[in-house]
Amino acid sequence: MKDTTEILKKLRQLMQSYGPSPLAAYIVPSDDAHQSEYICQHDERRAFVSGFDGSAGTAVITADKALLWTDGRYYQQALKQLDSNWELMKDGLPTTPSVASWLACNLAKDSKVGVDPKLFSYRLWKPIEKELSGADCCLIPVEENLVDIVWGEEQPKQTSNPIITLDTTFAGMTVSDKWANVKEKLTEKKAQALVVSALDEIAWFLNLRGSDIDYNPVFFAYLIITHEKLMFFVDSAKLPSDFKQHQSSNGVEISIYSYSAIGEELGRLTENNAESKIWISPGSSYYLNALIPKKIRHQEITPIALAKAIKNPIEVEGFINSHIRDGVALCQYFAWLEQMIAQKQPVDEISGATKLEEFRSKKEHFMGLSFPTISSSGPNGSVIHYHPAQETNRPINDKEVYLCDSGAQYRDGTTDVTRTWHFGEPTDFQMETYTRVLKGQLALGATVFPKKVKGQVLDTLARKALWDVGLDYGHGTGHGVGHFLNVHEGPMGVGIRLMPDDPGLQENMFISNEPGYYQDGEFGIRIEDIVQIVPATTKHDFNGRGALTFKTITLAPKQTKMIKKELLLPEEKKLLNDYHRLVWDTLSPILKKEDDKLTLAWLERETKEI
Prior knowledge:
Creatine Amidinohydrolase; Creatine Amidinohydrolase, Chain A, domain 1; metalloaminopeptidase activity
């Protein structure tokens, strides 16, 4: 727990002395706008000012209060990390007001609320601005980040990955083909340009990736796409040595601009432009949106976001192949771990995560992890996004539930998988909750649904078995996954909350299927697969709309010892047995070829029919 007293004191002094009139409140947001210069830093800013280092949360500082909003994934973590200066606002509970509502109800008339406009998306800015206006207060852009001023010389310097090219044998499409598709969309919208600020969209469109894989293989950049030109705003020193050849093989010429020139060049595009629209996502920062006059601003999710979410045939093949290799590594780790525990050899959360990475690193096309491994034993498993650290590290043993959520980046795909194990004798309640989580996962994975149905519609299917006995979990059920890109990818998903840009589920999208249950301070259970959306055959085909279903591509056993078999229906047992047969049939020939007798014997036992 970090003492934030002096930091808050200095920040409040800056708020008091700001401009012609003081700021009554200052907002330090979560990673909302996904802006280039901030994607790796502004969650660090919030961690610096509050001590809370979870990946989602918004801090609000007033003259006498400091509040942190975060969702159910992070309640426990926030309570442990926030010192006595802070109050936790449990976002998602019906009794918790929104940031805007709290500010509107608690600030005096004519109060000013400041926020860095490069950190807040336009979509979040406008409703807060509207609610504050109704309370005779105002939201104002503060161009110089106040947290940066407080942090001073001790703030870590911004870094940016050197860039590597991704060959079309992995990417599946040339930049020229992607550009042609975007130009068609620009013509449809009568727009002259598309402004792209989301880093994964830029990387995907240009068939480039960040080389020093730090979970998300992206790099700092902006991109403006017109009918005639690709304008790439980037540190030219980070460009790969084969960038010229990359342009040639992709059939394009890319114009390079200074990273900091985005505002100036966007201003040029708007000059003397009375009719032709400039397209920008409302998920981009308020700063970028405000540079475009309202009369020529077309606000809509970018066509790149949707194209990236629907994988092309080469990307689909890569996803499937990378999950086979990843499945072998997972089985090798769990077989090794079980043997170590049986032999009373010491293994803890950190050494276990390190061993899992070692197994993965030996697989073809491995580039790094897709996120920090959630290797969590006993009560640590109840912290939904727990990451092992020296001060929290626990042994993995045969007395506690072990939850392992992990993933890898391969050149041909990105993986994300969770398995929950007990290497001794689980309690009846642990078995019941595990079984109900499994029932929900099987139900969602087997469902048939109409084309383009919103993911939110399916969420209840994964929760019903838990809801039947008054249990639930505080996170979404499914998120999109990038192709050698961000492990969490929009614009679609499955969850209780509405996703504003969800285009509906479509063939060859890949999403996670991950219900869970968390008993505070005792244990956590989550079972997660990546599923491919594929066509389904139904009697009536939804009156011609078309039917879809899920195909699980993650390949790793789900522990049958944890199942209360009397709670499973015959059709659920069949679904699990069919899945385990697929896992065995796919992975056992590889293990036999590698002469991995330990893992093969473990896999055979763990995939037996129930």
